[in-house]
Hints:
mainly alpha; disordered N terminus
Amino acid sequence: MTDSPAENHLDVHKITWTALLAQWVAFARSAVALPDDPQGRRIKACVPDLIMLQALWFALQHVDELSPDQRALGFDRAAVLIDRHVQQLTDRWHPAPLPQRIEQLITDAQQLLAKVSGAQNDQ
């Protein structure tokens, strides 16, 4: 007896979230091994903000799966969270500039929010 196609169907979203979660957990664990000096402590303190920005970036790619009213709320929440985590990262690195990879993550999240919320406004 063979399984039906529905039973064999892989939920790509669940697999992707699981893979990302595993990546974020590994990243957080690796931060524990950073040296206990000012730079190491700064990076450790940034881990939750970096993970949140990555999670927001990924979630924004799937915002079209929400109902229109939930989508609008999602955009507002994403904007607030992006701003909060950008500010925390900026404060932690001040007066030094943010590392380029952190800047890129911030830019990616901000640009994706602008793109998907702009597309929503065009509809």
